[in-house]
Design brief:
The protein is built from no helices and 13 strands. With 144 residues, it is mainly β. The chain has two domains: 41 residues, no CATH class; 92 residues. The strands form three sheets. The chain has a six-stranded mixed sheet with strand order 5-4-9-8-7-6, with no helix packed on it. The radius of gyration is 21 Å and the shape is globular.
Length: 144
């Protein structure tokens, strides 16, 4: 989808990525493309989430800011939703989720954040903390 092109009377933009050293000219812009002396707004193409199944039931992956959130670490792929954190695996062409945030009840309003320690991902959302405890070889959910 192409938006409205507005011509800029003031300098400060350049279409090429290379130019003068230490210049304050912009070469990129969010949700707009830079043309010589102008900006053209656009909406980038967003790929929706594929179908993901949890316990054989299709999960609701409708976009509801800031959920769902997708994380990729060295230990796997994770998806954070309002009702918890899940690990994703591709089995016979079907994405399957396994809930890893045991004991969590309620609905989150804060986005998930990731501390991506090697072989040790830690997820937090508000007062909820989810991490893997190697001593007990299990995922731990801590809620205050």
């Amino acid at each position: 989808m192409k938006g409205i092109i507005s011509t800029l009377k003031v300098g400060g933009l350049r279409a090429e990525a290379f130019g003068e050293k230490n210049s304050a000219f912009a070469t990129v812009c969010k949700n707009a493309k830079i043309y010589k002396g102008a900006l053209a707004g656009y909406a980038p193409f967003i790929v929706p989430f594929p179908d993901i199944y949890l316990d054989g039931i299709l999960m609701d992956m409708s976009m509801d800011w800031p959920f769902p959130q997708l994380f990729q670490t060295d230990t796997g792929i994770y998806v954070g939703t309002r009702d918890g954190m899940h690990t994703l695996t591709l089995i016979a062409g079907v994405w399957t989720a396994v809930r890893i945030s045991g004991g969590f009840t309620g609905s989150l309003s804060w986005p998930w954040t990731l501390a991506d320690c090697p072989m040790f991902p830690v997820f937090a959302s508000g007062n909820c903390l989810v991490y893997y405890d190697y001593a007990s070889t299990a995922w731990v959910t801590w809620i205050k």
